[in-house]
Amino acid sequence: REAARRRRRVESDVLSDLSLLLPLHPSVRAHLDKPSVIRLTLSYIRIHTLLAGTCTETEMYMRMMEGFLMVVSADGDMIFLSDNVSKHMGLTQTELMGHNIYEFTHPCDHEEMRNNLHVGWRGAERNFVIRMKSAMAHRGRTVNLKSATWKVLHCQGRVKVCVAPSSVSCLLLTCRPLPLSHTLLSTHTFTSQHSMDMKFTHCDRR
After folding, report:
1. 4: DSSP letter
2. Domains of the chain: total
3. H helices then E strands: how many in the chain?
4. Between the CA of residue 56 and those of 22, 66, 159, what are the distances in Å?
5. Tell me: the pLDDT tens digits for 74-125?
6. Which of 36, 39, 48, 80 could cysteine-pair with 98, CB 3.0–4.6 Å?
7. Helix H segments across the chain?
8. Closest residue by Cα to residue 54 from 176, 175, 170
9. How far apart are alpha carbons 166 and 161 in whole angstroms?
10. Which whole number is the average pLDDT over 23-36?
11. Does residue 28 lie within any of the structural domains?
12. How far is residue 190's CA from residue 51's CA, in Å, rounded to a whole number?
């Protein structure tokens, strides 16, 4: 029993040290349970490996002003989201990081997501529309995840591949909410965006 207590103390100390290393506000860290500390630590290790030495394009920063940044592994794990995701989706960075994107995307969009997660060539561009769970209610209020609705996101970005120390890859995306009803999306519809003089600024592959 004494040996078990000692192991639990050591485990608790290690997890406390790990939580202090996470780049989160102290008020957020104070409410993390042990599985969350492990999940977020693994996400930050992976994002550090994937994006070490990467210079993000100015265009991506400009698009982020209207949305949020998301990094998804080839397996669909959301290994990083910018903290302003809560502003658009009503879900916090810590609630989403480390979870699989298929848990939060509309079942009818899973094939679209799988097609875009198929890595292909390094630097290959991605441009697609998906529906993702949103806890954002009217006038900026949030609801419980069980009451979440679907929000349409326009995702743009590119494939990022790291060859060393291990061959890992991800999608580096900016996600912008579109003012569309999720019921409008199907295999027979497509979305387009226009400037004020009605010139096309975007049209999806469909």
Report:
1. H
2. 1
3. 7, 7
4. 22, 16, 12
5. 899 999 999 899 989 999 999 999 999 999 999 989 998 998 888 665 567 8
6. 39
7. 2-21, 26-29, 34-51, 58-64, 85-89, 93-96, 110-117
8. 170
9. 10
10. 86
11. no
12. 32
